[in-house]
Amino acid sequence: MNWDDTAAPAEAPDGALTADRLVGAAADGEDQAVEAALRPKSLDEFVGQVRVREQLDLVLKAALARGATADHVLLSGAPGLGKTTLSMIIAAEMNAPIRITSGPAIQHAGDLAAILSSLQEGEVLFLDEIHRMSRPAEEMLYMAMEDFRVDVIVGKGPGATAIPLELPPFTLVGATTRAGLLPPPLRDRFGFTAHMEFYEPVELERVVHRSAQLLDVTIEGDGAAEIAGRSRGTPRIANRLLRRVRDYAQVKADGVITRDVAAAALRVYEVDTRGLDRLDRAVLKALLTLFSGGPVGLSTLAVAVGEERETVEEVAEPFLVREGLLARTPRGRVATPAAWTHLGLVPPQQPPGAGGQQGLFGT
């Protein structure tokens, strides 16, 4: 199989803000190297996403039976859930080569034309962060997906000529973390769309056990459960935590990962029982102790924790909201009762935002 990994990787929306976080879902260089070894090679090996796997299995087997290329596939979901892995599995199941690139790497229509014109028949083109592709390239992609041809413009001004270029049938696999940013004309050209859900702890335990076996790490069931429970529903984070717990077990213990070893290791790395790290807890603590649970404006909250507004909004808030620890309201951010309980604090007698505190902390 010809895997072309030379294209520029997609950059997460929060960019470098998540690269140094142990519980950040964006992949850094170390993650990419390890993931290549840990990735499942077939749908049967892929853990979780049961409905997506069943639907995709039907699409691929039907295409193989017809002797045709598979329909174009759109995969959406948060970073770290397996979109790139599934694209490679699609190529493997179709016995086809795969070429990998990303939306930010395609800034001109010519960039896309160069890639499309070099594709082989049946090849899989994986386009990560497809919503970040430039508009001219996006418009060229419409025709390529539907008619397997592109018009290459030669020359400039009144003398410019459009030369039609026929393309061999190929399968485009697009991946996006923000499906809502895709224009309807592009989204409608995908024959199969799937949304990747966050994983349940039981599924992440299977991921941890499988990765531990591949990494030649001895891990007990309760140790895997401890790591899975702190992995924020994301396999990439589970694998990253496993590697850090492995390091701790080798240095501080006998190399075997038990629940106690995993818990001790993750205390060192400041990942608590719900998967919150230093930044998450700093946001919650500021909201609870400085602003009595809110409501408080995002900019004010960011200043209180010494971070940029974008860092709080894009890095910390999504997980806190999903965990039911923080709520976004028209008047600002408000802590939920679960946040007080998680940090072991007693909520004020007066409900957040009641009485004279309304609107006190900005918007």
UniProtKB/TrEMBL annotation:
Q: Where is the AAA+ ATPase domain?
A: 69-200
Give the start-end ranges of region Large ATPase domain (RuvB-L): 19-199
- UniProt: ATP binding residues: 38-39, 80, 83-85, 146-148, 189, 199, 236
Coiled coil regions in record: none
CDD domains attached to this UniProt entry: AAA
Instruction: Tell me one Pfam family matched here.
Output: RuvB_N
Q: Which UniProt keywords apply?
A: ATP-binding, Cytoplasm, DNA damage, DNA recombination, DNA repair, DNA-binding, Helicase, Hydrolase, Nucleotide-binding
Q: Where does DNA bind?
A: 309, 328, 333
Question: What are its E.C. numbers?
Answer: 3.6.4.-
A GO MF label: DNA helicase activity
Spans annotated as Head domain (RuvB-H): 273-363
Main subcellular localisation = cytoplasm
Q: Where are the transmembrane segments?
A: none
Instruction: Please write the reaction equations for the catalytic activity of this protein.
Output: ATP + H2O = ADP + phosphate + H(+)
InterPro entries with a match to the protein in the record? AAA+_ATPase, AAA_lid_4, DNA_helicase_Holl-junc_RuvB, P-loop_NTPase, RuvB-like_N, RuvB_wg_C, WH-like_DNA-bd_sf, WH_DNA-bd_sf
Which residue ranges does the record annotate as region Small ATPAse domain (RuvB-S)?
200-270
Q: Which residues bind Mg(2+)?
A: 84
User: Family per UniProt?
Assistant: Belongs to the RuvB family.
Entry's free-text remark on domains: Has 3 domains, the large (RuvB-L) and small ATPase (RuvB-S) domains and the C-terminal head (RuvB-H) domain. The head domain binds DNA, while the ATPase domains jointly bind ATP, ADP or are empty depending on the state of the subunit in the translocation cycle. During a single DNA translocation step the structure of each domain remains the same, but their relative positions change.
Against PANTHER family, the record matches this protein to: HOLLIDAY JUNCTION BRANCH MIGRATION COMPLEX SUBUNIT RUVB, PTHR42848
The record describes its quaternary structure and partners as: Homohexamer. Forms an RuvA(8)-RuvB(12)-Holliday junction (HJ) complex. HJ DNA is sandwiched between 2 RuvA tetramers; dsDNA enters through RuvA and exits via RuvB. An RuvB hexamer assembles on each DNA strand where it exits the tetramer. Each RuvB hexamer is contacted by two RuvA subunits (via domain III) on 2 adjacent RuvB subunits; this complex drives branch migration. In the full resolvosome a probable DNA-RuvA(4)-RuvB(12)-RuvC(2) complex forms which resolves the HJ.
Q: What is this protein called?
A: Holliday junction branch migration complex subunit RuvB
What's the encoding gene here? ruvB
